[in-house]
Amino acid sequence: MKDLEREEDLLEGRDSRHAGGHGFGAFVLGAAAGAAIALLYAPASGSTTRNYLGRRARDAQQRANAVLKRGVDAFDSGRTRVTSAVKEGRARWQHVKGHAEGALEEGRDAAIKIVQHGRQAAEEADRHGCRCELHEGQRG
User: How far is CA 102 from CA 43, 93, 94, 106, in A?
Assistant: First the structure.
C-alpha cells in the first residue's frame, strides 16, 4: 500500500523525502558562514574583498542554480518515464484481464452446455427405457 502511495506522490510531483529543501538551506548557510570567516581573515582592502566575495558568491549561486536545474530536469524526466511505464502497465493489465474474463466466460458457457446436453441425454435414455446407474453426486 505504501508503494502505491509513494508512486502517486512521485507522479504528482510530491516527494516527502525532500520536503522543505533542507540540503539547499544547509548549502546556503555554509556559504554565508564561509563568507563571514573570509571577511574576518581577508588580507586585502574592504572594497577589494567585497568585490572578490561578490564575484565568488555570484559564481557559487550560478553553479548552485545549474546543479538545481539539472536535478529538477532529472526528476521531471524520471517522473515522465515512471508515468509512462505505469500507464503502459495498466493498459497491459486491462488487456490481459479482458482476455482472461472472456476465456472464463466461454468456459462457464461451455460447462453449462455440457451439463444441459448430459441432462437431455439422460432424459432421452429414460424415455427409451434405458437405465443408467449414476454414482451419487453425478446427477443433479
Answer: 83, 14, 12, 6
> How many whole angstroms separate alpha carbon 64 and alpha carbon 57?
10
CB contact burial 1-22 (16+ within 10 A = b; e otherwise)? eeeeeeeeebeeeeeeeeeeee
C-alpha to C-alpha distance for 132 and 140, rounded to whole angstroms: 14
The three cell numbers locating residue 97: 484481464
Pair 89, 81: CB distance under 8 Å: no
Task: Determine the structural domain holding residue 99 and report its residue range.
Answer: 21-127
User: pTM score, two decimals?
Assistant: 0.43
Q: Is residue 93 part of a domain?
A: yes
Q: Per residue in 60-96, pLDDT tens?
A: 899 999 999 999 999 999 999 999 999 999 999 999 9
Per-residue pLDDT, 65 = 92
**Would 5 be classed as within a structural domain?**
no
Residue 134 lies in a domain: no
Domain count, the chain: 1
